[in-house]
Structure formats: structure tokens, C-alpha cells
Amino acid sequence: MEVERNGFGRQVQSFETSIKFKGVDQEVEAVFIRALYIKSVGPGVKTLACVDNKIVAAGQDNILVTAFHSELTY
């Protein structure tokens, strides 16, 4: 996996939004604070959510990675 650090901007560009998350029936609240985004994933890695065509969640087997602070909303 390759990421872009501060991909959505610096702290003053932090934001909260609802995203469609593959495998979840309702939209997920996501808080992005100096957030990275995932530029690319390797073989076998599934893209699970995107914002502005940027990958913000991915998974493989029992591993889940997110670019947002899910602990701030749930």
C-alpha cells in the first residue's frame, strides 16, 4: 500500500463527512484530521471506501485500515 500523507490538507482543512462503506448498509460518519489517503493497494487488498475518488479504507483478510478517525464517531 502507498499513502499520501496529509492528502486532504493540513489540520485547518480537517472535515467530517458521511461515506459509503462496502459491506455496511448505512453510511458511516468519518472524521478526517490531517488525513492521509491511500494512493494504491496491492494484490488481494479490497478498497472499501473512497472520498473524492481517494481511497480512505481498505482491507485484506482480517486487517482493516482507515484514513479517518472512526473512534471519534462511534
From TrEMBL:
<dbReference type="GO" id="GO:0005829">
    <property type="term" value="C:cytosol"/>
</dbReference>
<dbReference type="GO" id="GO:0004359">
    <property type="term" value="F:glutaminase activity"/>
</dbReference>
<protein>
    <submittedName>
        <fullName>SNO glutamine amidotransferase family protein</fullName>
    </submittedName>
</protein>
<dbReference type="GO" id="GO:0042823">
    <property type="term" value="P:pyridoxal phosphate biosynthetic process"/>
</dbReference>
<keyword id="KW-0663">Pyridoxal phosphate</keyword>
<dbReference type="GO" id="GO:0008614">
    <property type="term" value="P:pyridoxine metabolic process"/>
</dbReference>
<dbReference type="GO" id="GO:0016740">
    <property type="term" value="F:transferase activity"/>
</dbReference>
<dbReference type="Pfam" id="PF01174">
    <property type="entry name" value="SNO"/>
</dbReference>
<keyword id="KW-0315">Glutamine amidotransferase</keyword>
<dbReference type="InterPro" id="IPR029062">
    <property type="entry name" value="Class_I_gatase-like"/>
</dbReference>
<dbReference type="GO" id="GO:1903600">
    <property type="term" value="C:glutaminase complex"/>
</dbReference>
<keyword id="KW-0808">Transferase</keyword>
<dbReference type="InterPro" id="IPR002161">
    <property type="entry name" value="PdxT/SNO"/>
</dbReference>
